[in-house]
Fold these 4 entries.
Entry 1:
Amino acid sequence: MIRFATPLLILAACAANTALPQKGASSDDAKIAKRLAGLTPGAPVDCLPPQRTSEMQGYANTILYIGGRNKVWRSDLIGSCPGLSRGDLPVITSVSGRVCRGDTVQTRARIGGMWTGSCALGPFVPYSK
């Protein structure tokens, strides 16, 4: 009986989780807006320039690649990786050896190492002064 109950409980918990409102989205939007304040967006590009970023900041629907105080690339994700907002580790799979649109991002919990989500990178919009 326990063998059959466990998958049903997991399925019910997952279904209940998708019905809950996403609380982090508005705070993520505010953090992204604050980081991009004073910067002007440019034309989207398909791949990041090699070795131009020093930091990555992850949010549920967006990743910011930081290239200094005055240069940021924004990639809105295809799908959602809510684990990025919690600080889960991103694992990016690239076929080309560069970080490009369409590359897969999987998130992994820092404690326990469980996979927590999967999404894909969108185009990269450069923001600069």
Note: Residues 4 and 10 are 11 Å apart (CA to CA).
Entry 2:
Amino acid sequence: MPKRFLFLLLLVNSLLYAQSENFQSENFFQQKNDFTSKRKITALIYSTFIPGAGQFYLGHKLKGAIFTLTAFGSLVTTIVSENNLIGGNERLENLEIQYQSTMNWEKAEQIWQEMLQVKADIDRDYKRRNLFLGITVGIWIANIIDVLFFTPDKGAGDIFGDSTLWIENKNGTFLISTKIDLKKIQNLYARKN
């Protein structure tokens, strides 16, 4: 399934890039739209590799952050479920060996009940892994569709906005600095009062 997904993403990106080159050569876009088209293609490439990066690049930071957090959150859940699945299968194999080697009926019944519980856990992790893998792929595809059709370009500019944060190294110590627009803070304060 991941190979099909990657193939589909590369195919869509290739087709869209070829289409934009065709439009540019036939002068369908004016000069301003040509710039926007190049930014859209760059945003598409960013979103293909990191969900939400294209939205962030086009100036929609909140939308980009939501796509990134949900995609990676569901991906982490998928990985944890896969890890639990592998561990559960190993535990089940060990229990099967214990079950076959035991001579005590009571101990065999106890091991059997534990095997049933481990099997139920394996089934639950298998379903969870598949569910969150599907959610991850769905978010990734929705992210690409969103950056192509539903996210307008806010134009080039500082992607971090007016407030930036940087780290400086002075005399062996690290300083964290920020640039803050005081007029925006005053306007926010004035609106609250």
Note: Residues 104 and 110 are 10 Å apart (CA to CA).
Entry 3:
Amino acid sequence: MLALVTNDDGIGSPGLGVLARCAAAAGLDVLVAAPRVESSGASAALHGAEEDGRLLVEDNRAPGVPDDVRSLAVAADPALIAFVSAYGAFGAVPDVLLSGVNRGPNVGNAVLHSGTVGAALSGATLGMRSLAVSLDAADPRHWETAEAVTTHALDWLLAGPRSRRTLNINVPDLPRAELRGLRQAPLASFGAVHARVAQHEADDAALVVRYEGTERSTEPESDAGLLAQGWATASLLLAPYADESVQVPGLGDADG
């Protein structure tokens, strides 16, 4: 089985090495293909830089990636990397997609905007088992804790059937001995940040978007709340699908 390791922090992030080592330890063949530059907030966008109709790809070893693992920098958002990999862009088609380890949490309904989660959801829609992992710090110190939790989560993921679900893991940036454990959790109402839109002071035609931290303590049993309490969290996310349980009315005569 082949695992594609990607992220939205770019090819220079140590999180790629963490996931590559976990995949190799699980007995998977590994390919690292990550954005050439940071693509945070890209969601499932399919942006990429082309030259004569070809996606720009170059060999570039991510930090901590084993020497025997192929490592590529791609001028593309992570979801596009997932998409083209499913059509053999980098050789064999991956069976598993691992995204992260992200610098900073991906919790709550804000996961909709995450490039880390967007890549994983794209992989799920393309038939891959998919896992997104994030570490709760802008400049993490305890990558080993993320590696331990990822190893456990990946074992569970590989033992189950393929599905349209993505396993979203968030890990507190704590020493392994201080981690309280792993809890399955619902998504918080929004997530780690929210936006506030206001008029620009000097330009009535311009809008300013300010991102501010949400109060995690108001939803202590959510993924954001449990993460703040020292738990790693696991949330199963469904890739887009058509919900036929509710009938949308037709246009009367147009229905015949």
Note: The CA atoms of residues 20 and 249 lie 49 Å apart.
Entry 4:
Amino acid sequence: MRVIFLIPFVLIFSGVTGQKVDKKLDVALKKEIAGFNGDIGIYVHHLKKNRMVAINADTVFPTASIVKVPILVGVFDKIASGELKLSQEFIYDTSRLYGGSGLMQFYKDSAKTDLSTMISLMLTYSDNITSIWLQQLSGGGMAINKMMDDLGLKNTKVNSRTEGRLEIWKKYGWGQTTPREMSKLFQLIREGKVIDARHSDKMYRYLKNQFYNGRSLAQFPSTVNTISKTGSVNEARGEVVLVNAPGGDIVFCVLTKNNKDQSWTDSNEAEVLTRKIAALIWNHYEPGHTFKSYPVIE
């Protein structure tokens, strides 16, 4: 297990570093989310200013596909130990067929692939087949959950296909987390503190390339670098983002559950609200780089 810098992280997580609540942003966000037809949690941290907002930030929510970030960490632990290589070849067969998002479901039987492509499919296209496969290759949900525990992320867990978690899987689905913890995981990757700087850097590069870029990412100038991951199921939508803004990095996570609007369109209430939250965060911290997003292209 190559998760390091545990003690500094505990200090960060406990608030010892002197984080201050950004009261103005807190008020604005609470006003924005008033009347949402569901449960919502938000965590925002401006890393340079050390300002934060936490609204239901320690409440547990379903991850949906955001669980693929902990799976990424599990895979890279195996890469760091030499048990896996990015260039390693694998053979897809149709016994792995699984629906939902992604491209591997359209692969021909016996098609060749490699670990790097599988990671890219999991993160860029949120591919479900590669995600399940990579969860297995990483040692399974229990191994990933142990890594999350070691990082201090006690509520961030893989539930699906994980021994002893059947009942909680029925409640939260594939995975669970809190807005604060998932933001912290992104922050640790950004700071090179997951496994080590070299492997964190590579994870960061994979997380840059997002096919699903119509929520928060559409609220920032396209010339600004971001890493992100979305998650969507009928009753829950979520997104975690770290944006390399001109005035300093900003990490935030918006998670929802028990949503009344379960539609699968760009006008879904939770997705529209997530875009508004992202725009509010950007314009609050980057007043000199105000960006008016374009209408959604259908």
Note: The domain at 6-286 is CATH 3.40.710.10 (Beta-lactamase).
